[in-house]
């Protein structure tokens, strides 16, 4: 499963909630302003963000956002979620408390030995973490919500 995060103004989010029928409608939406494609790496980065000992529970929604886009459309409620502007601010603050070194430590704890491909994966996760911090910083600066789409084979016809 692939993941992508989008920044979207709250008013446009409301329009998507009312009008989107499928996850592809969200992916093709003209309302999204910026995106971060995480691919399959989100599945490894997500648990590194939401370690149980963290007091920042908001981080559990950094990649897989909190609220389903639409309860009325099952395909959307499973694949597409959003974080409100308030939650985005909480996540941004929690992300700023983490460093790339902390992500590296958490990753190294999860693997038994460091093979070359694991070092490459670590480099990818560190880069994605920095991009995630930037995405939430931009969302806070511009008072935007964050949409997450998680599904198999995300097709991007355009990049916002």
- Specify the CATH class: Alpha Beta
The termini sit apart by 21 Å
Order of helices and strands: EHHEHEHEHHHE
CATH topology, anyone? Hypothetical protein yfbM fold
Overall shape: it is globular
Major sheet size, sense and barrel closure: 5 strands, antiparallel
> What is the mean predicted local confidence, pLDDT?
86
Strand order of the largest sheet: 2-1-5-4-3
Uncertain stretches of 5 or more adjacent residues: none
State the domain count. 1
* Superfamily (CATH H level) name: YfbM-like super family
Tally the helices. Answer: 7
CATH architecture: 3-Layer(aba) Sandwich
Structural class: alpha+beta
Percent range for helical residues?
40-55%
| Total beta-strand segments | 5
Strand content: 15-25%
Radius of gyration: 16 Å
What layout of secondary structure does this protein have?
Blueprint: E1 2-8, H1 10-19, H2 23-27, E2 34-39, H3 42-49, E3 67-68, H4 74-79, E4 80-83, H5 85-96, H6 100-110, H7 116-141, E5 145-151
Antiparallel strand pairs: 1-2, 1-5, 3-4, 4-5
Helix pairs in contact: 5-7, 6-7
List keywords for this structure.
single chain; 160 residues; alpha+beta; Hypothetical protein yfbM fold; 7 helices; 5 strands; 16% strand; globular
Structure description:
By secondary structure, the chain is of the alpha+beta class. It has one domain: 3-Layer(aba) Sandwich (Hypothetical protein yfbM fold). 49% of the residues lie in helices and 16% in strands. Strands 2-1-5-4-3 form a five-stranded antiparallel beta sheet. The chain is globular and about 45 Å long. The model has no long low-confidence stretch (mean pLDDT 86).
